[in-house]
Design a protein that fits this description.
The protein contains three helices and seven strands. With about 110 residues, the protein is of the alpha+beta class. The strands form two sheets. It has a five-stranded mixed beta sheet with strand order 3-2-1-4-5, covered by helices on one side. A two-stranded antiparallel sheet has the order 6-7. It is globular, with a radius of gyration of 14 Å. The termini are far apart.
């Protein structure tokens, strides 16, 4: 929106630059996202610095790694941004694994039929 990264069609955007996890601020016109909130909580639990703000697409293109979150995909790496390879990385992998553990701990014994 207005030249700033906001969100995916049904997902929240995260990227890592210089060891800091960054995501658009809720002050913008984005959905708060339950999975977004869990990803931020898991990052804090792991001591990953988090910053919310306003970012242009060049910041995501230049990121060390990037991922999207939503309830269906959970944590999914972004392969490319406008043809520029970005991909996942250690923060993406750690948060995806932590998210999987959280879901399993909360719902692993639930009847899945």
């Amino acid at each position: 929106m207005d030249g700033a990264v906001a969100e995916g069609a049904t997902s929240n955007v995260f990227f890592v630059a210089d060891g800091t996890l960054k995501t658009p601020s809720l002050a913008g016109a984005i959905l708060p996202g339950v999975t977004r909130a869990v990803a931020l909580e898991l990052a804090a639990e792991r001591g990953v610095p988090v910053e919310t703000g306003t970012y242009d697409v060049d910041a995501v293109r230049a990121a060390d790694e990037a991922f999207l979150t939503n309830t269906t995909w959970e944590v999914r790496p972004v392969a490319t941004v406008d043809g520029v390879a970005v991909g996942g990385g250690p923060v993406t992998s750690a948060l995806a694994a932590a998210f999987d553990r959280r879901v399993e701990a909360c719902y692993g014994d639930a009847d899945r039929s």
